[in-house]
Each structure stands twice: as structure tokens, then as C-alpha cells.
Fold this sequence. Notes:
By secondary structure, the protein is an alpha/beta fold. It folds into 2 domains: 4-8 and 258-388, Aspartate Aminotransferase, domain 1 (Alpha-Beta Complex); 16-254, Aspartate Aminotransferase, domain 2 (3-Layer(aba) Sandwich), CATH 3.40.640.10. It has 12 helices and 15 strands. The chain has helices at 16-22, 24-27, 42-58, 72-83, 101-114, 131-137, 160-169, 241-279, 306-315, 335-339, 344-347, 361-388; strands at residues 4-5, 66-69, 92-96, 117-121, 142-146, 173-177, 196-200, 211-215, 283-286, 296-301, 318-319, 321-322, 324-327, 330-333, 350-354. The strands form 4 sheets. The protein has a 7-stranded mixed sheet with strand order 2-8-7-6-5-3-4, with helices on both faces. A 4-stranded antiparallel sheet has the order 9-10-15-12. A two-stranded parallel sheet has the order 1-11. Bound molecules: pyridoxal-5'-phosphate. Residues 71-73, 76, 100, 102, 148, 152, 177, 179-180, 200, 202, 211, 411 line the site of pyridoxal-5'-phosphate.
Amino acid sequence: MRPAYLDNNATTRVDPEVVAAMLPYFTEHFGNASSVHASAGRVGAAMASARRSVQQLLGAADPSEVVFTSGGTEADNLAIAAAIGALSGRDEIVTTRVEHAAVLACCRHWEQEKGIRVRLVPVDGRGRLDVEAYRRALGPRTALASVMLANNETGTLFPVDELASLAHDAGALFHTDAVQAVGKVPIDVQAAQIDMLSLSGHKLHAPKGVGALYVRRGVRLRPVLRGGRQERGRRPGTENVPGVVGLGCAAELARARMREGTARMRALRDRLEQGVIAQVERCVVLGDRDHRIANTATIAFEGVDGDQLVRRLADADIAVSSGAACSSGMVEPSHVLRAMNVPLIAARGAIRFSLSRDSDDSDVARVLAAVPALVRFLREGSAPWRRVQPQGTIPPGDPNKTLPETSQACL
Length: 411
Ligand code: PLP
């Protein structure tokens, strides 16, 4: 029996078609894209074709708006660096409490290095952005608003069209970390008026170590790396040609398979979720059930140590992630669950099931066969633990005072 892999928000399997597309660029066409002879222009042509494929997936106006990077983290860092000092008199960034570490840690860096003020917009109990608070946070000093398109832990989708428009009304640039959304929801950067968008290959069946930043024409990028003229000087360094070719192929496949793949994932995800809820007492689905990506179900099991549940499921060859990480002997909920004020007793038992277009009925059946019994078993074992642990909610604190420490549970 193959393992049930339900951790696709952490990473996806590289599609066999993607592997096949990449192989010749390791073996035959291995030249440096900058060399004149590079397989008689074959390498440059393959890069150009991949750029067009990414452009089309995003609905961008021109292929030159796509800058290849080493992944989502680098794309986020480039976007934020671009905004620092780009607009005179603007030294603030507006972002959310539930961004990935690639955004939050980068903002924290600029806060410490350059005194950039970072305003963190809160979310509600379902992980939905407080749009009024976002509107209030924007102002004449905002250089950049950065809001993810889909949250990696709950799958909750944010209304980036509206948020981009509000950022522009305030004269600021708008960036979205779309790492978890690309390939799962249709994106049109022009219609949504997005200035910059980050994506990552390994979340859409391309390899790890390749990604891209969409940069609308007219927005000036300040390179983070210094070096040669690759990517028009915006991202120096010899290009990861096989990776880029793989990303291009994955973008094509995502475009061709999105509609059908998403419908299938949603049906499987809903069956998994409903099956678990029907069989397990005291569990709750986290996130905005009406507005979320089709592949993600995050379920909090009250009175269960999520880390233990993930390990027990791994023993049964079922791969999932926990929304809590063990630190110093305590099970700490992720910064996302803390921002949502999920009660501790539930947050500590939050499990993320994330599907892909490879998922099938047998994956769901395996979860439904294993989870109820394991939850029962762990609850029986955890009765004394529950007596000594605090069970209240986490106090929200001042959203603008400190940047939340991002936790390990931020894949
Ligand atoms: N942003 C989000 C929302 C993510 O989920 C991730 C990866 O988990 C990243 C950024 C980082 O992407 P990468 O792993 O390609 O650096």
C-alpha cells in the first residue's frame, strides 16, 4: 500500500511530466544560459518558454515581469526589499499576523535594521482578515501592503483584489504571497491590480529550490543579491535552468488541470472533513470554511497533543502536519492559531490535512480508518495532561506592539 501523503501544503510530489521536461537540461542541454553557445540558444529558449508559461498562469501582461528565484522565501524577501525606500517619505509596511515566516521575519529584519514600522493587521476566529483594521493601518507613510492570498495553515483565502485597491488608494504598493494559492485558484494579476506576487515551485508539483516573483512593469526591484546581469540584474546568479524548465512545465500543467483537479480535491477534502467530524467528538474545522483553497482541512481535536497524533499517523504511513510544535516540553500553537485566538485545548490538537491532485479515495479512507481510534487513544492517555494545562484562550495582546514569533508549524 502506498503511503497516504496529505501534507501537500508542506511540499508536493514532482509531477513525472515535470521530471521528464527537466531531464535533458541536466544531461544534454546543460550549458550556462548566459553562454553564447549554450546548446545553440536552446537553453535560453527553454527559459523564455518557462517564463511565458508562468506569465500565462498569472495573467501577467509581459514575460519580463516574471523574475525567477530560488523559491517563495526569496521572492517574498525581494518584494519587501523593493518597497523599502522605493517611495520617498514612506517607511511603513502593512501586513498580517498570519503571514508565513518568509514575510514576517523579513519585516522584522527591516524593522530592526532600518526602523521600518511594521503594522500587523489581526484576523478573526475564522482566520479572516479584519479589512477595517487593514484600511485604518494604511496611510501616507505606507510603502507596501503585503497580504497572502491563501494561508498555509488553514487555507483561508484573503480578498486580495479589494486589499490591493485599498493599498493603491493610499499610494502604496501591494504584494501578495501566493505560494499556497498558485495552481489552486485562478489568478489574474492585472485584473486584481497586484504589483508583486510570490510563488514557489515545490508547492505546485515542480522541484524545490525554484520559484518566481511577478513584478508589474514600472515597479523597480532593488536586488537583494549583487552579481551578474541574470534576470536583468534583478536576481543575479547562474540560473537554475532545469528548475526553471520544471516550473514552466508545472505552470502549464496547473493551468490545464486546475478546474478538474480543484473540483476533485474539494470533493475528497469535504468527505475527509465530514467523515472525521461525524466520527470524532469535540473537534472543529479551523479557518474560513466558505473561502479557502480546495485542498486544505485543518481540524482541531480538543484535548489531544497534535504532535503525538502526527507521529502516530506517520507510524500508520499517513503524512500530515500539526498546527502546534513542541518547544521546551510544552506544545505551543502556531502563530496563526494564536492570532485566531483558538482556545489552547483545541489549538494544541490542530492537524492540517492538505491534499493534491494526486490524492484519491484511498487516502481519505485511510484517514477515516485511523484518526478516530487514535484520537480516542490519545485522549485517554492525555487525561492527566489536560488537568495540568491551562485551557483558556491566548490573550490577543497589542497587534502593533510586537511581531509574532513564527513557529515551526509554518511550512
Ligand atoms: N509562503 C508561504 C505561504 C509558504 O507556505 C511557504 C512555504 O511553506 C513559503 C512562503 C516559502 O516558500 P519556499 O519554501 O519556496 O521558500
